[in-house]
From TrEMBL:
Superkingdom to which the source organism belongs: Eukaryota
Natural source organism: Zizania palustris (Northern wild rice)
CDD domains: STKc_IRAK
SMART domains: S_TKc (SM00220)
Protein name in UniProt: non-specific serine/threonine protein kinase
Transmembrane segments: 44-64
Amino acid sequence: MKGPEQEGEGVAGSSSYRFRHRRRLMDATTATDSEHSSHNGMPVMVSTLVVVIVCTLFYCVYCWRWRKRNDVRRAQTESLRPLSNSDLPIMDLSSVYEATNHFSKENKLGEGGFGPVYRGVLGGGAEIAVKRLSARSRQGVAEFRNEVELIAKLQHRNLVRLLGCCVEREENMLIYEYLPNRSLDAFLFDSRKSAQLDWKMRHNIILGIARGLLYLHEDSCLKVIHRDIKASNVLLDNKMNPKISDFGMAKIFEEQGNEVNSNTSHVVGTYGYMAPEYAMEGVFSVKSDVFSLGVLMLEILSGQRNGAMYLRDHQQTLIQDAWKLWREDKAAEFMDASLGGSYSREEAWRCFHVGLLCVQEGPELRPTMSNVVLMLISHQMQLPEPAQSPLFTRLNKVSAPETTKTQSVNDVSISMIDPR
């Protein structure tokens, strides 16, 4: 038999053994966990490292491209310095800042492909509109120079008046006369404002735009093809007189005559207003502007936009609808309902007829601007029958980039630089 002391020693020995055994098990478990943790942690570390490296590379590429773009823009801006020697007034940046209250949101009138436009008030009280080239602009310095060099030489009551420009501290700005009623599309396609455009105003707007284009094509010192005639590029003064604006896409030709044709690989302008031969083949002429005017005339008569929404709702374009109603002798159904039937039937039918002549598919079939103006103002002149308007089925093949504006067939403005 064991004595009490021996039994105590046995119990203590057994406890010590169990403790050492548990300790070994704990150490083994810890080692196993550490090994598993090490194996699981490696992919996470590698993934994190890869992400960091890729992000760093992207950031470096972004910084490089940003610096390169700024260097190009700075070089282009420097090339504009000789403009200060031209007859166009040069406004200093501090004066523009003060006039626009440092480009405050309250003074912002809108934004286009060129950049934002701000209202400003000079020290003497004269109101101005400041068109500021945005760093993110789809257009660029080439269009800026084009507009400065062109509008400075053009003077007509139906063209917006350029008062000066500002080229300072990498800022490129055009200073225009301020037109309080802004653009035609703000009235024409707004259900609340369209009623303000009575027939007399609409007829006056059509005539004014036509006279402005006649000046550009035939009466100015240079032959100018605008290439982007549309409702948003027609501004209205305080008496609702129209003024053609935005000459950044215009092409200038030294030769006179109506046979000026050109071809470009960069199509610029707005789908829906584009002549078919220009949209599909890049061939443009003064007849391209005539086509755009025809579309605009039909929009002014109907109060409808020739865009994707109209195509979706009517399964045909506004031009096709106009042609169909003309053939069925239902021109009255084409007129804007907001007019309430209060219009001169003779004037309206003549505008409708001339509009259809302008949008004929073949450029050789379209009238010149001098003939357009004559047909609009002459009540005795016999008008030829219009040929069927283009179906635009081929436009489905044209891909147009998205813009920040309402996306439609005619709201997508292409603004790739096309040097003269």
